[in-house]
Amino acid sequence: MNSVVVAIFQAALLLVFLDLAQGLKCWECSAASEEDCSKNGKLVTCQSTQDVCSTVIRRNFFMQRIWKQCKQKQACLSDRDQNFDKYGGRHQCNRNLFSSVCCCCCDKDSCNVAESCTAYTGQQTCDSPPNNFRNGRVYCTNSNKVGSECYYSCTKSGYYLNPSDSATLQCMGNGQWSKKAPCCAKPCPPYAPYDLVAMVNRRSDKRFKKARGAFGNLFFPRWKLDRKYYREARILFSDVVYPEFSTFLNGSRSTRPGPERHPAEGDVTDSDKVNIGNALRYVKDNIYVKGHRPLDHKDVLVVSTDRSSDDDVKEAAQALRGDGVLTYVLFFNLYDNVPLDMEQLLDIAGEPEHVFVVEEGDTEIGTRLATELISHLCQDVCGP
Fold this sequence. Notes:
The protein is α/β, with parallel strands linked by helices. The protein folds into three domains: 22-106, CD59; 136-185, Complement Module, domain 1, CATH 2.10.70; 194-377, 3-Layer(aba) Sandwich (Rossmann fold), CATH 3.40.50. Helices cover 22% and strands 26% of the residues. It contains eight helices and 16 strands. The strands form four sheets. Strands 13-12-11-14-15-16 form a six-stranded mixed β-sheet, with helices on both faces. 31% of the residues are buried.
């Protein structure tokens, strides 16, 4: 019986030994410098509950102390998170002040042998705050030095700080500001600087007017129609583009003799073909050309059609999206026996959320399109 107990005890010891042997290995020391820590420290095998190697560097006046050891991951991460504490930047992870503490964690064998607190780099400055903060002002307690706090405010009427919780930024010990610098901007919506090109597939029958009316300007009441923020172009096309019936971002349009009439009213011969790819290339080559608008404007393209394209759309659509043009498709499903080519619509728009199928009696298309636009146009009103 005793022999059985001894065997069980020995087996248990063996399992513990194997568990320890397979555990994480960390450097352990308590020293005044990295050199002293490397010379007098040792590599130890962590217990099963200790899954990271920890390094803590504490400075008190002109003295420094370094601790390296095994530690539980959650405890170590909680200590490390304080390196970037918004209100603790003067004391956390700051080599320039008399009192600071910095912690880091890593999870590979021997990973804390060398100084591994990446946040504790000794960098003494952050990027310089703006000299001229547009539509507002900024005041910093110590320029861009670590520990400096910068206070942002808007001075121009009708402009607000965005993001609103970025009124105060602090230069942290890792050489980064505690938050991204804000800007002073008007509320979005109704203010959102963007250009819109509406590509409309013309139809010779009366139902073209219904499709045009369904699209209309339903979402425009959500926006401030000020040319400083918004410009519109409307391009009519079928197998070819009709510039003489189109309007452009600068407000111009081609003129022609006699009373001007919409091609849907029979002014030109209707075509059985729809070449959306050709119209997309026209927009890229003639409207959304390089340098057509200020950098803070966004480009939006809405393709309105009631049938599939007879030419290839993918290459031209990708080229526009590659230039940063937000592209949408409105497919008006108002006719019988018209096939819906969703693959082609996705080739144009690039993502499902940018494809809208408008059924008979749909009066909410404007609201749905406006909501989707807001998610993009108001995402970063500060611009690039």
